[in-house]
Amino acid sequence: MKTRCLVIDDEPLARDLMRSHISKLDNFEIVAECSDAMKALQVLRDEKVDLMFMDIQMPQITGFEFLKILKNRPKVIITTAYREYALEGFELDVVDFLLKPITFERFLKSVNKFYQEREEQTTNLPVFNEVVNGEEPFIYVKENKRVIKVNLGEILYIEGLSEYVQIYTDRKKIITKTSMTNLEEKLPVDGFLRIHKSFIVSTSRIEAFTAHSVEVPGKEIPIGRSYKTTVLNTLQLNSSLA
Fold first, then answer.
1. Is 28 exposed, middle or buried (0-12, 13-18, 19+ CB in 10 A)?
2. Residues 36, 60: contact at Cβ < 8 Å?
3. Residue 34, strand partner residues
4. Predicted local confidence at residue 204, as pLDDT
5. DSSP code of residue 36
6. How far apart (Å, rounded) are the C-alpha atoms in residues 213 and 223?
7. What are the structural domain ranges in the chain?
8. Are residues 35 and 13 in contact, defined by beta-carbon separation less than 8 angstroms?
9. Mean pLDDT, the chain cut into blocks of 10 residues (242 residues total)
């Protein structure tokens, strides 16, 4: 099965170059090419896309703004002439950051990274246990070569560090290679809350909160600016129901 690609760039020459690079790979195909994010949004609604090659500086909304509104987005490789965007790109869990002009050799490195991430996520996805006879729900995560069972009730909070995630429990810290977005999608919504780009907390383990931070046993965690409204609304609702 071919990897289905979407190219998003307002520069025709940049789209031409990406089309040329992608055409050299037998197992890749271009679903569509778009000059702005709004056209790309329609493509994503109508087509299955595995990988997006996307510029940052585009008309209407920027590439980063576009990524922030997407749910269940495909893998993303950033293509831009501006090196200073690299850090923000990686904070949004992009596969790679390609600096223009993009050589075919550098393009291939990004493609290989895409394959590596897809393979790792296929083997490292947390697997949830159905609750049977009152048994506590848990996940399996892979740490090095071991697969570890983690009871959801023991999790205090989860911290994202680039390509890795640290899961803090009452007894230990577990490091697994996955993204915060990937793990967040697998956790039950009524038990865990994303409060920062780098932190997810167990709502049942929250001891106190303010407008700026959340406290779990042994740790005070900041609330991210872009998460603040949702987090405070959720926590205040939960406290009013208690």
1. middle
2. yes
3. 8
4. 93
5. S
6. 5
7. 3-123, 136-241
8. no
9. 92 95 92 92 92 88 83 88 69 83 92 80 51 64 79 93 88 88 82 94 94 95 93 80 48
- 47 CB-contact burial (10 Å; exposed 0-12 / middle 13-18 / buried 19+): exposed
Residue in the structure block whose two tokens are 């987005």: 73
C-alpha span between 108 and 120 (Å, rounded): 18
Q: Does 2.40.50.1020 match the CATH number of domain 136-241?
A: yes
- DSSP of 120-178, one letter per residue? HHHHH--EEPP--TTPPPEEEEEETTEEEEEEGGGEEEEEEETTEEEEEESS-EEEESS
Exposure b/e, 76-106, CB count within 10 A at least 16 = b: bbbbbeeeebeeebeebbbbbbbeeebeeee
Q: What is the pLDDT of residue 87?
A: 65
The CATH architecture one would assign to domain 3-123 is 3-Layer(aba) Sandwich (3.40)
Say whether 81 sits in a helix, a strand or coil.
Answer: coil
Strand partners, 4: 29
